[in-house]
Every structure is written in C-alpha cells, then in structure tokens.
Amino acid sequence: MAQSTIPYYVFGVLEPALQILGFAVASFTPHYFALTQTPTPISHTLLPSERIVTYQLGNLFLLVAILGLSIINSASNPAVISTYLSALWWGDLGHIGVTAWGMGSQRLLNVRVSEAKSHKKGLWGPNCRNPPSHSGGRA
What we know:
DUF7704, transmembrane helix, membrane, transmembrane, DUF7704 domain-containing protein
C-alpha cells in the first residue's frame, strides 16, 4: 500500500465508514432513509417496491464499502489504486449529476433553503436527535 496519507484516510477510512452508515440507515430505518432523499416529505407507508429498492441501495452501500476497504488495504500496485480512485471519481460525478437532475438546478444551487429545510426535517444539526415524524409511515 503506497498511498498518500490524505487519500488513504478519505477513501480507506472516511468513505467506507459513511457507506456503512448509509447501509445501516437504509436497512434499519427504510422510511426515514427514503424521507431524507427527497425535498418533500413522504407521508405514506413505503410500498413493498420502495422498501425493496431502499434495502437494495443499502446493500450496495455495504458492498462498495467492503470493496473499497479490500482494494485500498490490499493493493500494492499503484495502477490498481489509481484505477479504483478514478472509478470513485466518475461515480461521484454521476451521483452529483443524478442529484442535480432530481432536485432541479434551482433547489440544488439554493443552499440556504436546502439547509433550512434539512434543519426543519431534523436531518442534521441541532435537531438531528429528533427525526422527522412520519404521518402514516413506519421507521
């Protein structure tokens, strides 16, 4: 393993930890996870298809975390690590692109409104201990 310290901690520690957290939230609180993916609240119990998609996404988070930990910690060839980091780069660009497309450019660029909505929903910040209530949904 011949990586620099900062990329190692970002892609070998921080990113897998966040992916495992994403797996846990999607797996154990699928309604809450689905609620946090949209700017408008979900006021219904998740349909079986929505629940399955949420579980599958959580499973993908876990798979990518395991792959990342395996590649970063076992690869000794710089070309392998470089290829893996390139794949992450393209994946992150796709993630940002899909998010921008789904939210629309006005919502994406209006960070203050998004931040205020997130605090009202209790997604992070001082209210994060009190998750948003779900009318008709289960966590």
